[in-house]
Design brief:
Elements (H helix, E strand, L loop, with lengths): L2 H10 L8 E5 L5 E5 L4 E3 L7 E5 L1 H8 L5 H6 L3 E5 L1 H5 L2 H8 L1
Parallel strand pairs: 1-4
Antiparallel strand pairs: 1-2, 2-3, 4-5
């Protein structure tokens, strides 16, 4: 799945944390904003309540269910900046991606 396909799937499934802006920062691969305040997902970058920093490869493994998010966090593959509670609510986002 490409990043654009992921953004479309997340939008289609209303996959965001209500009232929160969560940024997925993929480094050189860009960013995706799950904007629960505006109720949309986009490939924009900007300020967020919570930022998850992860490689695109590791993100895909998590989205496919091949890498557990908690394991990725413990191994330093996933870093969280800001509101940790919003990050914890993202398990529902993963479920919506897997459909």
């Amino acid at each position: 799945m490409t990043k654009s396909e992921m953004v479309a799937a997340l939008n289609e499934n209303s996959a965001w944390v209500a009232g929160r802006r969560v940024k997925l920062d993929f480094g050189s691969e860009g960013a995706v904003m799950l904007d629960g305040a505006a109720q949309r997902v986009s490939e924009e970058d900007g300020p967020a309540d919570t930022t998850l920093k992860v490689s695109w490869e590791d993100w895909q493994a998590m989205a496919d269910g091949k890498l557990d998010a908690m394991t990725a966090f413990m191994q330093g593959k996933l870093r969280v900046e800001g509101d940790m509670s919003a990050a914890m609510q993202l398990q529902g986002v993963f479920a919506k991606l897997r459909g």
